[in-house]
Structures
1.
Amino acid sequence: MSPSRSNRTYHAMTSQRKQRRKHQPLWTLPLFFFASYVFGELVFRIDVGIGFFGIGIWYILLFGASAALLSSAIVSLCPPKWGRVVAILLVTVSLLLFGAQAVYQGVFGRFFVFSSIGGAGQVAEFWKVTLKTIWNELFYIILYALPVIFLLSPLHRLIRFPAFYWKRPAFFGAAGIVMHLFALLCLLFGGTDIGSVHELFYEPTYVLDERVGALGMHQGFVRDIRYFVFDSGSNDLELELEGEHTEESSPIAGEGQILFNAEDPIIPGSEEDLATESGDPSVIIDRSPNVMDIDFETLIATEEDEDVRAMHEY
């Protein structure tokens, strides 16, 4: 075969591949993001032992559809080559969130919140336990990484990364907002009582562990970021005002001591009761913190379990 004919054949095959990719349905992009987010949430629930069936699955699907459409809108703002890079970054963030939360939960028995990211050095202090947990989580970490592997492999040609046209991101963005509003409307179906999904979504006092079961890790962590950014200042102000009110209304006799009036309710048989029976109109009670004298050096020297010894050293 002559070089010129070989070049023509190569260009013809390349052109055919481009045509096939061009004619891939536009919905393959949001479908990929939806499958990635929902797959990660389901694997995460199996990984950390959260109930697989329940109302949380319904909200994972709703908020997952909204996130998929909004992610598609972001990718559609870029040229096809850069759109694929942005898609890889988005699913990598999801991978890191699931993997980090699973490892942290394996070490400390709870999920970390956004405000505690600055204290991530705690995990490094227990590096042996952390490495052991990562090894135990390796299978699930690989599962979390499957969407990234998919985009890095030739299979990414099954997804259409369209050229920029303002109607595409506008359509995906509008559809994502409508889906998100529909998901918020569905929160009302379960009621607004204490402990309901509606309250878990809107009330910042609940811990992340409670929200994850009802809303999924993605939405639970996003709500946690929202509370940290918009509500932390108001909460600090409320605590400050409450503290000022307490200082004005309750006399303090000294550091660690609180002045109690004899008319306050007293537990029978307590020291307050005995002091009041003595006839004193008011009693100063020592409320300083109790300190336990624990010999950690002896515990470290006698402990055989390395994990427990690391906790004593900490």
Note: The two ends are 72 Å apart (CA to CA).
2.
Amino acid sequence: FPITRQPESTPPTRMGILPAS
């Protein structure tokens, strides 16, 4: 999946990417 910033409704990951789920 493409590297994307997390939405405000979701806590950011340590890598700052969206989970595959």
Note: The mean pLDDT is 61.
3.
Amino acid sequence: ERARKAIFAPLLAYIARPRQRILRRIERFREEHFKGKHVVGLQVRRQMRKGRDKEGAGTTDEHVEMHFKCAREAMRGAENIVYFLATDHEPTRRTARNKLGDNLVHLNGTIDSTRGGMEDAVVDLWLLGEGEQVVVTGGSTFGFVSHGRRRMKPWLVPLEKPLSSSSSDGWEKPRCEREITCEPCFHMWPMMIAQRCFSGGFEEAMKEFGQLNCRPW
């Protein structure tokens, strides 16, 4: 389902213009893996905080599993399905293969900050929004851009711990929910909420619109 009116998509189209060699890579992948298929883009972000180790310490296994459940729910009743995975965590590719089988496709490049790795990330980002549905990790700008660019209302697996929660027991049970808009959320709201001068009423209002899943990543 694509929104007819949107703000983010036309602005991004003006600012972000991949080079022709990258666009050719995107088109080749689409032709090889997406043609004639029902496609769902699936983003699983694992490296949640700077300084965390590279074993996906930013999320739990249950949180990751919810992404796969959400993707299957998004495509319920469809046949000839392809799941396109974009992740910042190499072992998650293997986990997804075990869960989704031969219906899973992804780029085979390395996940790093080299020039090649960054180019792969742009290809990932564009392909993520090329399906009929998209599932993203709450709070990830990568996910926001993928669905905002294509005017798609995403399925979202929210952060397990809202930014405004300071207690050690603030972790929430993983869940899957459908967003009410294709527009990426405004990152600075949770920054404001976290300040001492704000009280609960405003936070509850932001929670109602899913704004607590924004993060400046």
Note: Residues 8-184 form a domain with the Rossmann fold fold (CATH 3.40.50.11350).
